[in-house]
Amino acid sequence: MSVNARAWQSRRRSTLLWIAGVAAVGPGLLVGLGFARDAQATRAPSAAQLLHTALVDAAARGSGHQAVSSGSGSKTSTFSDDVATNEGRQVITLSDGARARILVVGGVAYFSGNQTALVQLFGLPAAVARDVGKRWVSVPSSNSKYSAVAADTTLPATLAAITPSGALTATASTRLHGEAAVAIRGRAPAPQSQPGFETMYVTDSSRPLPLLVTFNLQASGRLVAGTETIALTDWGEHLALAPPTNTIPVSKI
User: Fold this and answer.
1) pLDDT at position 194, please?
2) Which of 8, 10, 73, 160 is the most buried (most CB within 10 A)?
């Protein structure tokens, strides 16, 4: 049997929508999260240049770590990602019990997970998920499903997913976790697949790097219950990745 490729598309967006499947919250959340207009905001070109420099510097580091946390009420999800230019690893945890891992190395994407994750996140029929069990499923880059599996697991994809769009503003320097930082505010980027707001904090230095990103997405013109926070650390970290054992080719399931 073949894998349901549609269920692979936009894993992070699907978990955000899963989290946000409750009543919308009021507009006061915008102010509480600091999205009110800042009187000290700089002009958009300065913010755009700062964003460009931070993204260029991050890409030059070649690798990094991101810890993604989304939640609303009792529903939460976390993604723990170590990403590099052409490889990476990801651990996904949902509060409904789904647990999954993704590894991209040597031009092959691999995924594994418990039964809930194999069905919910990767679209496998329950019988196929039981047959796969605890094994890793390998997806070569020549397979049409590769890009969907590897979508969130490399540095270029990470940077694209955190790049705000539209008119940008930048606040005056502030302190974030003991570091001088500047907040860049704009619209949520296209990879989020929903309209909304984003704030990216970057180090206030001559070589700025992203530190933290927060999202609030909208549906039908209102904020949905649920936010996403991404902490970015370990720029330039060394990744020692190796293909897993006990694999099964995706063409066999």
Assistant:
1) 57
2) 8
| Residue 75, domain member (yes or no) | yes
Query: What 8-state DSSP symbol labels residue 193?
Result: -
The answer to whether 8 and 148 have CB atoms below 8 angstroms apart is: yes
What is the C-alpha separation between 199 and 244, in angstroms, rounded? 37
DSSP three-state, residue 30: helix
In total, the chain counts a number of residues equal to 253
Cβ-contact 95, 77 below 8 angstroms: yes
Domain housing 77: 5-237
Per-residue pLDDT, averaged over 192-196, amounts to: 61
Alpha-carbon distance of 188 to 165, in angstroms, equals 6
How many CA atoms, within 13 angstroms, populate the side-chain half-sphere of residue 115? 6
What DSSP string runs through 154-186?
A: SHHHHHHHT--EEEEEEPPPEEETTEEEEEEEE
- Provide the CATH number for the domain around residue 126: 2.50.20.20
3-state secondary structure of 200: strand
> pTM for the whole thing?
0.77
pLDDT in tens, 202-225: 999 889 999 999 987 665 555 454
Burial of 192 (C-beta count, 10 Å sphere; 0-12/13-18/19+): buried
To which residue do tokens 């099964």 refer? 248
Give the integer Cα–Cα distance in Å for 103 and 150.
8
What is the number of domains present in the chain?
A: 1
For the chain, the farthest-separated pair of C-alpha atoms sits apart, in whole angstroms, at 59
Does a structural domain hold residue 250? no
